[in-house]
Write a structure and sequence with these properties.
Length: 282
């Protein structure tokens, strides 16, 4: 099902680019746009993980650079029966984390500086186990390709908005017709591909891997509170890969509201507490 969704996303983006190219420059524009879409699909499939890391300004680290983090990921991935992922750190003050990559063999687990400074060791284990849960559940390809393709679509929307030539009463560029069309399409792409159930599934897998469902629940509370206070300026198309909505500080204004794909933290915490009562992860 995940592979079918990836194929559908790629086909949909190709059709979208072809339609836009055709509306701008006729048949020649359509052919050129289809060629561009094909190249983007290839890059998204094989290089989207690097693009996501670049979008978060993350840097890959080794055991010498981050010995405690590396050792924790190594210990947890062994418990999960997974190959060792690449480990990365993003420089953001907001505490958060994500996983990316096409499959478990080339997965990347990334945390922010803010996360390392905020949570306790047990909570860090819970957060890392959640991301390894995404790896184990093979969620990353769909998440990563979706983030890349929807981000490209949003960029087209911005170009359309800037090219609209109209301004609001305060002198700011007004949203052009192309942006009005493409922004909801990009949002629907993400809503279609990034199911809220994936976060619940990764929470459960994380509880089983770490053995600490309550520590993950505690970490989620801290991350949610911090995300509302500490902005993270990234493309909205990259937000769904993060463990907690990184755009929460912006209050869901404008286009960011369209990209709300995370279930409520309260519901996630309640489910983790129920898992603890059931003895899951213990």
């Amino acid at each position: 099902m995940a592979n079918l969704k990836v194929f559908t996303l790629m086909a949909g983006l190709t059709a979208l680019f072809g339609a836009v190219g055709g509306s701008i420059a006729g048949q020649e524009g359509m052919v050129a746009a289809l060629g561009l879409a094909g190249a983007m699909n290839f890059i998204a499939y094989f290089g989207s993980a690097k693009m996501v890391l670049r979008g978060y300004r993350a840097q890959v680290v080794d055991q010498a650079q981050a010995p405690d983090l590396y050792a924790r990921v190594d210990r947890l991935r062994q418990r999960a029966g997974l190959p060792m992922p690449t480990v990365a750190i993003a420089p953001h003050a907001q505490p958060n984390a994500f996983a990316t990559g096409r499959n478990p063999g080339n997965a990347v687990v990334c945390v922010t500086r803010g996360l390392l400074e905020l949570v306790s060791p047990d909570e860090l284990d819970g957060v890392l186990a959640h991301e390894l849960g995404h790896v184990k559940n093979r969620d990353m390809l769909l998440q990563t390709v979706t983030a890349t393709l929807s981000g490209a679509t949003v960029n087209l929307a911005r170009i359309g908005a800037m090219g609209g030539g109209r301004h609001d009463p305060e002198g700011r560029p007004a949203l052009g017709p192309l942006a009005v069309l493409l922004a909801p399409i990009a949002a629907m792409m993400i809503q279609f591909a990034i199911s809220r159930q994936r976060e619940f599934g990764a929470d459960r897998a994380g509880a089983e891997i770490s053995g600490k469902p309550l520590a993950l629940a505690s970490a989620l509370r801290k991350l949610e509170a911090a995300a509302r206070q500490i902005p993270m300026r990234i493309s909205p198309g990259l937000a769904p890969v993060a463990q907690i909505d990184p755009l929460a500080a912006f209050g869901g204004r404008g286009l960011t509201r369209l990209f709300a794909t995370h279930p409520s933290t309260a519901e996630r915490v309640a489910r983790l507490e129920a898992l603890a009562r059931e003895g899951i992860g213990s």
